[in-house]
Specification:
The chain is an alpha/beta fold. The chain has 2 domains: 3-196, Alpha-Beta Complex (Spore Coat Polysaccharide Biosynthesis Protein SpsA, Chain A); 210-283, no CATH class. 43% of the residues lie in helices and 20% in strands. The protein has helices spanning 16-24, 44-54, 73-83, 106-116, 156-161, 171-181, 206-209, 211-218, 223-237, 240-255, 264-283, and strands at 3-9, 32-38, 58-63, 92-96, 100-101, 120-130, 136-138, 151-155, 185-196. β1 (3-9), α1 and β2 form a beta-alpha-beta unit. The longest helix has 20 residues, at 264-283. Residues 5-145 form the Glycosyltransferase 2-like domain. One of its GO terms (molecular function) is glycosyltransferase activity. Belongs to the glycosyltransferase 2 family. Keywords: Glycosyltransferase, Transferase.
């Protein structure tokens, strides 16, 4: 199967080589890898240039956005900039982070999943991060079917059906909700253990952390589901503050009449899907 990779990159001098080396060593090579240098101020661009010179697999594009590590708009705007360089000649497309190490058979296995299941829309492995003892431990959401934003692969049909990726906080949740709305399934593969070199959230500032509740509003969760989701997140993070951050973000978005990311019909589907999952987990 043919696949493209787009990697938004901002100040990843410490990790980028490891990521690109793991891509070069894949048993199923990509057709093209677009490296989007997003306003880097360290040695990132030098590394990009080095790899583009030594391998025609890589192609560079520069873009300029905020210097902050804000989730959502920054990373997806950079992704879309890279997307402009690609044609439609692919079976699946991949959005990767620039601070990961992939197992060597990663895309070979992903391609097999897409081949076996024509209805599969989004696929990926599991994220592992180092603890203080330098051990690689699983760091994946409670929902094991969720594919982390750092390692997402989309079938072409699904990617087109959901209209690409939304440049807003929550893009890596709304994409899966819209995939299911359009009749596509999700799949994770626990055998694909991806090393994440920078622990999740470390680069995000306090403002970014408060955007989670706003994202829940824009996905039309409604107040009650947002409360439940925020409580779950607070328990996972062992932080009461994260609950209040989420809820204040939701309430402020509601007061400001923030634009929704999904249509009313899509929102109704999302609410029903969320309630179904909540009831299933309660029964379990």
């Amino acid at each position: 199967m043919n696949y493209y990779i787009v990697i938004p990159i901002h100040n990843e001098e410490a990790f980028l080589k490891s990521t690109l080396d793991s891509i070069l060593l894949q048993t199923l090579a990509a057709k093209q890898v677009i490296l989007v240098n997003d306003n880097s101020t360290d040695g990132t661009e030098n590394i990009i240039d080095e790899y583009c010179t030594t391998s025609n697999l890589f192609k560079k594009v520069n873009t300029t956005s905020s210097t902050q590590h804000m989730p959502g708009s920054k990373v997806i705007n950079a992704f879309n900039k890279g997307l402009e360089l690609l044609d439609d000649n692919y079976d699946f497309i991949v959005k990767l982070d620039a601070d990961i190490i992939l197992p060597l058979n990663y895309f070979d296995v992903i391609s097999q999943h897409f081949k076996k299941n024509q209805n599969l829309g989004i696929c990926g492995g599991f994220i592992y991060e180092q603890n203080n003892a330098k051990e690689w431990i699983l760091n994946h959401p409670m929902d094991k079917n969720h594919v982390r934003g750092a390692i997402k692969a989309y079938s072409k049909a699904c990617f087109k059906a959901i209209g690409g990726l939304k440049n807003a906080m929550g893009w890596d949740t709304v994409d899966e909700l819209l995939a299911q709305f359009n009749g596509y399934s999700l799949q994770t593969d626990a055998t694909l253990k991806v090393k994440h070199l920078r622990p999740t959230g470390r680069a995000y500032n306090a403002k970014a952390k408060r955007l989670q509740g706003k994202a829940m509003y824009t996905m039309r969760y409604g107040f009650v589901i947002t409360c439940i989701a925020s409580m779950k997140m607070a328990m996972k993070n062992k932080s009461v503050k994260s609950f209040w951050n989420n809820m204040s973000g939701y309430i402020q978005a509601s007061r400001n009449k923030t634009s929704y990311l999904v249509t009313e019909e899509e929102g109704k589907f999302i609410k029903n899907l969320r309630w179904t999952n909540i009831k299933r987990k309660i029964k379990a």
